[in-house]
Amino acid sequence: MGTSTALADVDRITWPRKFDLFGVRVSATTYDETTRLATDAVRGGRSACVSALAVHGLISGANDGAFRSVLNTFDILTPDGQPVRFALNLLHHAGLADRVYGPELTMRMCAHAAREGIGVYLYGSYPHVVAKMAQNLLYRFPELQISGYEPSAFRKLTPAEDAALVNRINESGAGFVFIGLGCPRQEQFAAEHRQAIRGVQVCVGAAFDFIAGNKPMAPPWMQRRGLEWLFRLGQEPSRLWRRYAVTNAAFVVKLCGKMLGRRA
Fold this sequence. Notes:
The structure is a single chain. This protein is an alpha/beta fold. The chain has a single domain (19-222), classed as Rossmann fold (3-Layer(aba) Sandwich), CATH 3.40.50. The chain contains 13 helices and 8 strands. A 6-stranded parallel sheet has the order 4-3-8-7-5-6, sandwiched between helices. Strands 1-2 form a two-stranded antiparallel ribbon.
């Protein structure tokens, strides 16, 4: 009776409202709402997919129909970047006071998981990074149940390896599965494993590096003003200059085009 009631309740989850940004359906949501709904899914035994979507992921989806289709299957696509939040507010009057940033979302969900007894699994990045991330999370939240963690193989898994990974995650009993494979690999992985992994998959990318202390985060004032990309570019110019030159310019062009179109 109790299980049937829980499953019936979770079927009635009302996911956050989504708005179209260049063909990608982005959720107008908050940290608290995302955490609450993810918990509801876990309690009801329902698999779900969440991703913290910054400008790079948004533009990748806008320009790639196949990836856009993947993103639009997600239950929640949070506005990770301030520019994404700005666009939601400008074009759809979403009224969002803050973004839902992957590293901060991870910390808040882990704090909640520690209080509620929900196990977490960490999958992605390099061995030393994911191990340090787990260590730092336990230092911050001593009651947190880290059900398991493992690095990315940085290649496509064989069917046997993939099945073994899914089995490890499911056997761990984790409710929240944090994935740090980078965009778009992490979103593709989550979508492909929606039916196989029994838990809420949360794609948070660079959160692994930041929480592990492997890379510095931008100062809060830069984050608030949507200038985190500039800080990260200064940290890793050779790796990120092309991404930001292309995606930021495309974002501005698309946003201006939408605004001008509405005024015409």
